[in-house]
Design goal:
This protein is an alpha/beta fold. It is built from 13 helices and 5 strands. The protein has a domain of 221 residues: 3-Layer(aba) Sandwich (Rossmann fold). The chain has a 5-stranded parallel beta sheet with strand order 2-1-3-4-5. Helix 3 links the parallel strand 1 and strand 2.
Length: 318
């Protein structure tokens, strides 16, 4: 056994060195192909202070497609950083904002809220363990520390932290040479053809657990209230909005009126502005898929509705 111990240790040491080399290479490649991941945006942000940070799920992401964020900055004179991430609820968005505030500042947060994120763990706790998200998240001590805290406090699967620290998903990323861009950006210029089957399929995807579980909804509404309190306690302004969706699509969204009323009441109690644009009249040609604004739609929405919001002094005193 003694004779075997030394070769075994040498074998393990060589394996660890090779793994470390692969990890370093994967991490280096991540910085060459990075784009959409919110942690990547934070650690590579060119400024330390911003006027607005945008949070939310995929409905907030088109504001950063192509040159649109630069366009908004020119039109408003505000510095804007979009940290939205597809398929994420308030727990992950708070996680991202906490990391941002560790070494950056923002005068205000624009939160694009979506009802689907209040009805399933898939968009909240389970999102942290998504390999597609982890493999594009840069190794960062502050993120690892916060992920540990969330594992203990929020019940995040411990395997998410293990994957993140070991870089397993990065090393095994088959798309490592491709730029980290959400697939929706490639459709930004297209016009969607309305389809009842596509609408139904999208709704089923967004609400995998339905929207009838009052306890689940109450839990995530409580997390949202805690997020609002967290933002305001740090002297950061907050505006919550909903973006336009086609009327036919909204009609399929379960308990949407209840959601709107609950969020509006919660925000009104805290003096936080809520701008519900989800039902503003929209041209059917203003979407690139079932519910995301294309360039033409986003330009019209920005000009008519969002620009005045961003032009207000971003102090939370609206």
């Amino acid at each position: 056994m003694k004779h075997l111990a030394k070769p075994a240790l040498l074998f393990v040491a060589i394996g660890l060195v090779l793994y470390a080399g692969l990890y370093a290479a994967a991490e280096s490649l991540l910085y060459r192909t990075g784009d959409t991941n919110p942690v990547y945006k934070i650690v590579t942000a060119p400024e330390r202070r911003y006027d607005w940070v945008i949070l939310g799920a995929s409905h907030a992401m088109p504001f950063d497609f192509a040159d649109f964020n630069a366009y908004m900055e020119r039109e408003t004179g505000r510095r804007i950083l979009n940290l939205a991430t597809p398929g994420t609820g308030v727990i992950y968005n708070r996680f991202v904002l906490e990391r941002f505030l560790e070494d950056h500042q923002t005068a205000a947060v624009l939160y694009v809220v979506d009802s689907f994120a209040f009805h399933s763990r898939a968009w909240n706790e389970e999102r942290f363990a998504d390999a597609k998200l982890l493999r594009r998240t840069p190794l960062d001590a502050a993120v690892a520390k916060r992920l540990l805290a969330y594992t203990l406090r929020q019940g995040i699967d411990p395997r998410a932290l293990l994957d993140y620290v070991t870089g397993f998903s990065k090393i095994n990323n088959r798309e490592r040479l491709q730029r980290d861009i959400w697939e929706g950006e490639a459709q930004f210029e297209r016009v969607h053809r309305p389809s009842a089957s596509a609408d139904r399929k999208r709704i089923d995807y967004l609400f995998p657990d339905g929207a009838e579980d009052a306890r689940t909804f109450a839990r995530y509404l409580g997390d949202f209230a805690a997020f609002v309190d967290f933002v305001r306690a740090r002297g950061v302004g907050l505006v919550v909005i909903k973006t336009p969706v086609p009327a036919r699509f909204r009609q399929l969204m379960p308990n949407e009126d209840r959601f709107d009323q609950s969020v509006a009441h919660l925000l009104a109690e805290r003096g936080v502005p809520f701008r519900d644009f989800s039902q503003v009249p929209t041209d059917p040609g203003h979407f690139f898929d079932t519910d995301h604004l294309n360039r033409a739609g986003l330009t019209a929405f920005f000009t008519q509705h969002l620009k005045p919001v961003l032009l207000q002094p971003p102090t939370g005193q609206q």
